[in-house]
Amino acid sequence: MEREKLIELIDVSKIYHVGDSEIAANNEIDITIYKGEMVAIVGKSGSGKSTVMNIIGALDTPTSGQYFLEGRDVSKLKGDDLAEIRNKLIGFIFQQYNLLPKQNILDNVGLPLMYARVGERERKKRSMEVLKKVGLDKKYLNLPTQLSGGQQQRVSIARALVGRPSLILADEPTGALDSKTSREVLDLLHQLHKEGNTIILITHDSSIASEAERIIKIADGTVISDTDVKEFKNEIKTNTESSMG
Amino acid sequence: MRLRQTLKVVWANIIGNRMRSFLTMLGMIIGVASVIILVSLMQSFYDSIISSYADMGINNIDVNLMGRNGNLIITESDMYKYAREHSDAIKGVAPNVAVSGTLSKNGEIEEYSSIKGIDENYIKLYNKEIQEGHNITYSDILVRQKVCIIGSYINQKFFEGNAKIGDSVRLNGEEFIIAGILTQISDSSQWSSDNCFYLPYTTAMRLSGMGSVSSYSLYVVNSELVSSETTALQKYLFNTYHDSDAYKVTNLMQMLKESNAQMSILTSVIAGIAGISLVVAGIGIMNIMLVSVSERTREIGIRKSLGAKHKDIMRQFVLEAGVTSTMGGLLGILLGSIVTIKAGDLLKLKAMPNLNTVLVAFCISVGIGILFGYLPARKAAKLNPIDALRSE
Q: Does B370 lie in the same domain as B333?
């Protein structure tokens, strides 16, 4: 059976203008991600992975090239049209959770639905459903500051899920967590993947990247490899052995 | 985002920063309160003037005849006849003859007063009341009797309040017998209407060397007829003189209208000056909102990343400024109303907050909040979500 494309980046370049000079953050990148995949985009700091994430997350648009999300060209969209795409098709999970500190977790989770003009009753119902899924339904009235880092990240995952998006985009989702809590969050992401969600992990950490089934490596603004997890692990193993002599 | 949900978010932000919100409102509270206090007190002051004018008789029409080429043409009997012919609207006519001079008692105490020659109708027409003695009579007028009616101030000044009918007061050295003493109507001070001295108008004409009466007061039965009767009288006089410079017809209603117009200008100027504080309050709101946008850049980034559109962010910040300003306006109305009533008590004025001013001040406070909230809101809405998410 032919797999259905969710994301297609064709010759995508992003150039920033600093004074008179131009800096290419991404250079003619081609990436295709299919529905139901769990993909890691990995690269060091300054490699251009964040720019790819911003473009995939409809937070930014490419300078040239095309970006298709669910078959729709979003590379030329602006302002409110991009906001609509973010609201309907993408669920963000941020490294720093990015919860609103003065709103309880139920309201935080319901934010994407609020901007989608979903009525209050329906919003609360769906927010409670996803909070239950991440095991925080009993703490729905708590403020984010009353929760641990791991719990806050689970709230952030619940918020990413509530709008039933096509894509979950996780930017260094375990970056601010200890190893035990990181494991819990990764297990939750695996569970979501098993349920059919498409997940993209953006990370600099190879061990986190190896949680995905497919790993896209980015360096100097271009894709340098696109492998499955088995190959990626072998590559790491080979690199480690050669560096140890 | 729906309006009710936005209001909920806005309210949470205002309550979450109570002290800052209150300090932001303070400018609006003071601005609205000062507009209400100043305009309401001015209005009450004006009302008290109107009320004191009313005591002087708002039903009167005053006529001054300058005549043509030194010839007055119209005599007292013409005016009495005119009044009789218009008796359905005009209750009476009284000649006014002013005399300049000083009053004295036994050549010792001297006093300036409003000295006026009147007829037997004057006291009644001007709603004055004789407390003791009697009015000037028709025969006093016929024989140019040297009798007088004195106000309570003269009684107080010359007789320590114990004047008796038959006592005498000198006017420019001539002795006048007191025929009547008026009831006190004001505070019996030198500049009040209690400082008056009335004598028969024929006697007054002799004293001032006038051959005929040049000033009359007509008393109209109903204040609503004053305007139409003034016009009718002007028509009569124009038909007699064929020259509008030969006479002057005035009434208190007309004077009140003129003073009302002047008072309105003065009130507008004062309200305008107080209104400047509303603009300053608006600038204060804008300043705080700009600080708020800077502080909440990350929040704006989060909202935008989750799908908030330009109008959602605009609405949130404009409403926040509007609600802050409106609350300031409402508190200002409360403060302004309390201070107006208390100040009215202190100044012995029947002062009440002016409803129109309250409504206008409230609308301005809402409008200013929205207007001055627009710029910070636009700044927030235009933030790039990537940069906003990166901010600390």
A: yes
Give per-residue pLDDT as tens, B239-284.
Answer: 888 888 888 998 877 777 777 788 888 888 888 888 888 888 888 8
What does chain B come to in residues? 392
Residue to test with chain B: of A78, A111, A145, most B Cβ within 10 A: A111
Regarding whether B214 and B348 lie in a shared domain, the answer is: no
**Predicted pLDDT at B99:** 85
SS3 B81: helix
CB A134 within 8 A of CB A106: no
Residue B54 pLDDT greater than 70, yes or no = no
Beta-bridge partners for B90: B220
- How many residue pairs bridge chain A and chain B with CB atoms within 8 Å of each other? 63
B81 and B225 belong to one structural domain: yes
Q: Please indicate, yes or no, whether residues B90 and B223 belong to a single structural domain of this protein.
A: yes
**Chain B: closest CA distance from residue A89 (Å):** 10
Which residue, A17, A46, A87, A36, is CA-closest to A220?
A46
* Residue B40 covered by a domain: yes
pLDDT reading at A26 higher than 80 = no
Cβ neighbourhood burial of A138 (10 Å; 0-12, 13-18, 19+): exposed
Cα separation of B352 and B341, whole Å? 6
Tens of pLDDT, residue by residue over B189-232, are 777 778 889 999 999 988 888 777 888 888 888 777 888 899 99
For chain B, the residues whose C-beta falls within 8 A of a C-beta of chain A are: 1-2, 5, 9, 12-13, 16, 298-299, 301-312, 385-386, 389
Does residue B130 lie within any of the structural domains?
yes
Inter-chain contact A115–B306, Cβ cutoff 8 Å? yes
Angle at B196 between CA B194 and CA B201, to 5 degrees: 145
Residue B88 lies in a domain: yes
**Same domain flag for B97 and B179:** yes
Residue numbers in B near A83 (CB within 8 A): 304, 307-310
Which one of B218, B246, B274 terminates a domain? B246
Residue A153 and residue A187 in contact, taking contact as beta carbons nearer than 8 Å = no
Q: Which residue has the higher pLDDT, A16 or B50?
A: A16
Average pLDDT over residues A73-92: 90
Is the per-residue pLDDT at B107 higher than 80? no
Domain count, chain B: 2
Q: In terms of domains, do B18 and B164 share one? A: no
Choosing from B246, B272, B306, the residue where a domain stops is: B246
Q: Band of the pLDDT at B149, cuts 50, 70, 90?
A: very high
Range of the domain at B43: 3-52+258-390
> Looking at the structure, do residues B275 and B222 belong to the same domain, yes or no?
no
Residue B251 located in a structural domain: no
